[in-house]
Specification:
alpha/beta, binds adenosine monophosphate, 390 residues, 15 strands, six-stranded parallel β-sheet, 14 helices, single chain, 35% helix
Length: 390
């Protein structure tokens, strides 16, 4: 696809789709501006090239296709202005508006219009009419065929911003030509959410370490009693066939932290995996598993991690996730990649981001990337490069 650095931007109107979908508290304050900061390199680079105008656009939250005063981009504009130390003009809509001549513009929430999610061409064309060049820097949205990341590439010369480029290059290289040993660590709740990624990764990795509630579905499928642990009953067959075809690459925990309930006041007990008491549930991987996984992690040269090892939101149940995070950070020889969402939150909590090669800004997008899928927005950029000269 076309790269930002190959474009002449001087005196051009540049339209950039960013992922400024930041979390807000009840009073509408931004609680984490990581996503705004992640696109600053792209924004600063464009501004340094003296464009006629920089127009930014994003979605925020889930307004379901209609205006919602709580999800206006105003706090985002304010924060961006503070970070850039430059005036940012925030508009009250994203289409059917006259764009003022100001240097930096932020359009209103794209998802106030149902056309955005419907990948509507008329909507995309209206957005495109504001500019001469389109840049996609919204990796977190690139697994969706939405108007501002997909249809829009039909109307403007299009390129990838630095964040998008970095995300796909690092993950793409790890999947295509990983330094060996290559391991993946998968956790989280459901086998069904991660099955496609597990299937794709099993073709490439030397070992795939399982954690999270997912492990109990695998154990149940092998006939082991899992007490009150979360099990996906309709996925037992699938788990069984995965275990069979994984040729021992799929590694399961040997012990677990069992708890009387999902609560910080719960009674807890470390048990071997085949001895979970009937009235208890597994909430984390146990110390023996942590030690085994740490040893494997220390020897790996490429590591991809997606999904927590336990109910890490409760401190008592976070040890497995914390120890795996620390083990990744400790392995300085390996390329270490962490998928977004909960796993990124666990890394952030421990302030380990800088010790890893890459923490993805996109949960869903990074998971689909690991599935080996071509993300719709990335496909659109590639097609634009082939079709539209610049
Ligand atoms: P996912 O979105 O599938 O990556 O799942 C993340 C969630 O998995 C987190 O909210 C964790 O609390 C949860 N989780 C991890 N391990 C367990 C477990 N043993 N039982 C229940 N939930 C778990």
């Amino acid at each position: 696809m076309r790269r930002l650095k190959s474009l002449k931007l001087k005196n051009k109107r540049v339209l950039v789709r960013v992922d400024f979908n930041v979390p807000l508290d009840k009073r509408g304050n931004i609680t984490d501006d990581k996503r705004i900061k992640a696109s600053l390199p792209t924004i600063r680079y464009i501004l340094a090239k003296k464009p006629k105008q920089l127009i930014l656009m994003s979605h925020l939250g889930r307004p379901k296709g209609k205006p919602n005063p709580k999800l206006k981009m105003n706090p985002v504009a304010k924060r961006l202005q503070k970070l850039l130390k430059k005036k940012v003009t925030k508009l009250d809509n994203c289409i059917d508006i006259k764009i003022p001549k100001d240097k930096i513009i932020l359009l209103e929430n794209l998802r106030f219009h149902k056309e955005e999610k419907k990948n509507n061409k008329v909507f995309a064309k209206k957005l495109a009419s504001y500019a001469d060049i389109y840049i996609n820097d919204a990796f977190g949205t690139s697994h969706r065929a939405h108007a501002s990341v997909e249809a829009i590439t039909n109307y403007l010369p299009s390129a990838a911003g630095f964040l998008l480029q970095k995300e796909i290059e690092i993950m793409g290289k790890a999947l295509k030509s990983p330094k060996k040993p290559f391991i993946a660590i998968m956790g989280g709740v459901k086998v069904s959410d991660k099955i496609n990624a597990i299937n794709n990764l099993l073709k490439k990795v030397d070992a795939l370490l399982i954690g999270g509630a997912m492990m109990f579905t695998f154990y149940k499928a092998s006939g082991i009693e899992t007490g009150k642990s979360l099990v996906e009953k309709d996925k037992l067959k699938l788990a069984k066939s995965l275990l069979k075809k994984s040729k021992k690459k799929l590694m399961l925990p040997t012990d677990t932290l069992a708890a009387s309930k999902f609560d910080k006041k719960a009674r807890t007990k470390i048990v071997p995996i085949n001895s979970i008491p009937k009235n208890m549930l597994g909430v984390d991987i146990g110390p023996e598993t942590i030690a085994i996984y740490k040893e494997i992690i220390s020897k790996a040269k490429t590591i991809i991690w997606n999904g927590p090892m336990g109910v890490f939101e409760i401190k008592k149940f976070a040890k497995g996730t914390d120890e795996i995070a620390k083990a990744l950070a400790k392995n300085k020889k390996a390329v270490t990649i962490v998928g977004g969402g909960d796993t990124a939150a666990a890394i952030e909590k421990l302030k380990l981001e800088k010790k890893l090669t890459h923490v993805s800004t996109g949960g869903g997008a990074s998971l689909e990337f690991l599935e080996g899928k071509k993300l719709p927005a990335i496909k659109a950029l590639e097609q634009n490069y082939k079709k539209q000269s610049y």
